[in-house]
Amino acid sequence: MRRTVLLIVAALLVLTFARTQAITDGKLDGNAHPAVVLLLMEVGGQPAFRCSGTLLSPTVLLTAGHCTDAFPGSPFTGMRVFTESNVEAGIGITNNYPFAGPNSVEAVYWTAHPLYETASFVVHDVGVVILQAPGVILPPSQYGVLPSANQLDVLKTQRGQQDVTFTAVGYGLQESFPDPAMFLATNSRTRYMAMPHLLQINVPGFTGDFSLLLSNNHSTGGTCFGDSGGPNFLGSGPTETKTVAGVTSFGINGNCAGTGGVFRMDRQNVLDFVRSFLP
Questions:
Q1: N or C: which end of the chain has fewer CB within 10 A?
Q2: Contact 224, 156 (CB under 8 A)
């Protein structure tokens, strides 16, 4: 999941945050998470960027705020989702990526959290995309679900955070380079999953109460450019749930290594925003 690089300066510490976009050191997802789809964004009517997202219903897609609120002066003019687990293999055969066609659904509306533009993107990095009806029809049990308010707060006092795992899913890059164009990069339009563990939660001055820091290494896997907006389901393996604990938001460096930043979904204002679009 790669995006524009944003420099955040805190006192004498300078951190490079890359808005993320691909699962690193993960494994092919196959049909394990059909609610996770590839989101293609257009600028000026032309394909320009891509993200990942989770279907909460046939027509409501949860993603990152920076995937719905374009950079100044270049608003997104169109969006669509591609539903195949391996969009790459289907290009020209079963889909018309990056343009409209089979196995894609057009978006009719998109928006970021109402406070998204009032602070650094990481503070309110959640967005919603509304798809053209009937949307993407799945068995009800396969859609992502929202957490309860403050559900993750219990993790703040839990010892052995390395034992708290998540399932990250997305269509991002498998490695940080090359990435000549967000939507043209090879080996980056296939759904992968990884099982990162919790490193930090609610760290004052860094993640605050809006983010989690998860592992990103050869052992656990992690996220990269293209995974932005993709889900981090609570639990992994036999303990995995459909609860979207957070959406992939940022990286600490441009190499897709070390840690991955996840925007928490269990804040009350975030839940109120997303639920306003659900039936």
A1: C
A2: no
Domain 5-275 belongs in CATH node 3.40.50.300: no
Per the listing, tokens 């510490």 go with 13
Mean pLDDT in consecutive groups of 10 residues from the start of the chain, 279 residues: 25 31 66 97 91 97 94 86 95 96 97 92 94 98 98 78 84 56 56 90 77 82 81 95 95 70 95 97
Report the alpha-carbon distance of residue 6 to residue 127 in Å, rounded. 19
Two tokens, residue 277: 């679009």
The pLDDT score that the predictor gives to residue 181 is 40
Cβ(258)–Cβ(216) below 8 Å: yes
**C-alpha distances out from residue 42 to 46, 75, 79, 123, 195, Å:** 5, 9, 6, 24, 31
